[in-house]
Every structure is written in structure tokens, then in C-alpha cells.
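ARCHIVE CARD
Drawer: 12
Card no.: 0347
Subject: one protein chain, sequence and derived structure
Cross-reference: see card 0346
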Amino acid sequence: MSGRESLAVFDHGPLGYLSIAAHGHADALSLMLHLDGKPVLVDPGTYLYHSGGSVRDRLRGTAVHNTLCLNGTGQSEISGAFNWRRKATSEFTGLRETGHGVDVSAQHDGYARDFGLLCERTITVDASGLTVRDTLLATGDQASKPLTSISIGFLLHPECSARIEGTTVVVTRGGEALMQISAQPNVSATLENAEYSPAFGIMQSATRIVFRANDLKTREFRTRIDVQSAATSVSNVSPALQPDQAPASNFADAGLR
């Protein structure tokens, strides 16, 4: 993307291995991104197992992953250090080449029981970045809980910094602009303190970008990630490149655990 070596990972796999999904995280439809061999949008990791307590549960939850979250609750419900009371089911729904890139889509039913909604995510990869479209689809069933918040988060690697400009977030690393993440006008952007565990037993401070819906009746959200060309300084962040200005990137869709 934009002349950078790029790897995007779209997690649409099962919650975890076999029936208890012991090592699973409630991260269906999460997006991870590496640029030039370095992580930018990351999974929060595991940190600890039995001794992790509330920290382990938090790092397994939906709210800390790079996916849509309703009411700050999990797509799947934790019932122990290695168990789940209720598990979301994910389904890959399509891969399509377009004139400017590739669309890949998947959905999960983790919020169907409580909110009567399926979550669908379509990621479009083109030569200058990615477009993430999150859609809430009505199941026709009565919701058992009121909807109080809709959020979409992106966890940054600790080496990355961010600043907000309206509904756009500029992401940098060491003074170099990496990308701009833009949301639609009816969404508010915030930066939050977050946790990142790069390896077992290690915890680091990080930043999470969170977009929140201003209107809870909104059912479709578009987030654009414009990757900046290499060596773009923070003071020279430019508008999005056109699709014909850079070679297409590699795209991987797979489950991460």
C-alpha cells in the first residue's frame, strides 16, 4: 500500500480450538496491520493465564480488539480462565476482486441474542489503504437488552503515536506519518490508554483509537485507513493517494489466536 510492504490480517476464524475454545479471544472480525515489516494495528495479546485474573479476562474481551463492540460487552461470554459460557459463530461470506482492489467479508452472531443484530465486516484493500465497512443486520428477533453504545476500536503498537484532527486520526512512528484513519461525520473519535502484551508475562502501555457512534440508530459505519508513503514527515501528511499511484499490497485473511 502506497509503496510500503503491507500485511493485513482479517480474523474470521472460530473462537478457539475444539468445544471449549480454551485459548480463544472474543475478537471476531478483528483487523491487524503491519507496514514495512513492523506492527501498527495489533492484537492486545495474552499476558498471563491462571494468575492473570481480571487482566486476562480484559485482554480476551471484544472491547480491546480491533473490531466493532456493542455496549462494551463481549461477542462471546467468558465463564472461566479457559472456558466460555456462550460462543459467537463467525462465517466467511465472500471474496471479490474489484476494479481497484479486493473485498473480503465475514460476519458473526455474537450480539444476536442480546441485541437482535448480526455484525458484518467488509474490508476493501486497494493500492493506497483499506476501507472497513461495519454493518449491523437485524435478525428479526426481539432484543433482550437496550443498545447504549456502538464503538469501533483500533489498538496501536506502543511505538506508534496518534493525534486527532476532527474525525481523522493521524498515526505516526518516530516522527514519520504512517497512516490516517478517518470515520464518517456522525462518529466521534477518542484516544484511550490501553494495554499490549507482546509476549507471555510482558505488558506495555499503548494507545487505542476508538470511534463511537453519535446516533445509535446508525447501522452502517465506514472507516478509511489511508497509508502514507514511506518517509512522509508528520508536517507533510498529504490527502489520500489515488489507487493508481502505488502498487497493490498483499492481503492475508486468517484466524489469529
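Annotation on reverse: Residues 6-239 form a domain with the Beta-galactosidase; Chain A, domain 5 fold (CATH 2.70.98.70). Confidence is low (pLDDT under 50) at residues 238-257.
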